Amino acid sequence: MTDYTPDALIQNKKEIPSEFNRIAKRYDLATSLSQGYQKDLQTSVDRMNLKGNELLADLCCGTGKSTIACLNNLPNGKVIGVDNSEGMLQTARENLYIKFDKDNVRFVQQDVMNLDMNDNSLDAIFMAYGIRNMPDFNKCVRNLYRVLKPGGKICFHEYSIHKSFSSKLYWEFLGYFLIIPVAGLTTGSTKIFRYLIKSVETFLSPDEFTNLLKKTGFENINHSPLGSWRKPILHTFIAQKPLR
After folding, report:
1. CA–CA distance, 97 with 102 (Å, rounded to integer)
2. pLDDT confidence of residue 153
3. Among residues 132, 142, 122, which one has the least CA distance to residue 60?
4. How much is the pTM?
């Protein structure tokens, strides 16, 4: 019997960057066919209520679509785009450096699980479609708490399904009958997308992830679904590091 668990599809998590490298040039075409993709990212950033002058890290930034959403709300701020795929980062640089001042945005290759940033150094963190792919959710969230300044905000834009048969069935229909066929046609590969579909199924439910943020020490935690057909599966999680 074939094993379709995330770890079976990607034998080693170190394979993930190389898989994204393979499809980097065609990844934006795949996401552009997902209705509301950029609008949803912008909605999550808007929900952070940023002042506009923050230093923000956009983690797992990919080709920079999430970075654009962040920059739109930071006219006097700066964004550090972080990803572990050099191919995705190169595409991000090509896409954004012609539109935005390099003083306002830069991209660095790092493993978010071992983020090399100083304690209390960031005003805000945005992470889209990334936390569920971390090998250890608890360790990753603790590390993000560490680098965030007291009073700083963090936002996770993420797929998370409720622990119910109907939610799983809905996600599997979208994944196997829509996302994977379209991604295969546009990028020429389905391996990473099959992995991503399974990673959603093994991720925490909205309530479980909210509890993890609370246990880590975050406060003012807010969970809001996105709209339209994504309402049951795509969420904005926002939390704040205490001032004390």
Report:
1. 6
2. 98
3. 132
4. 0.89
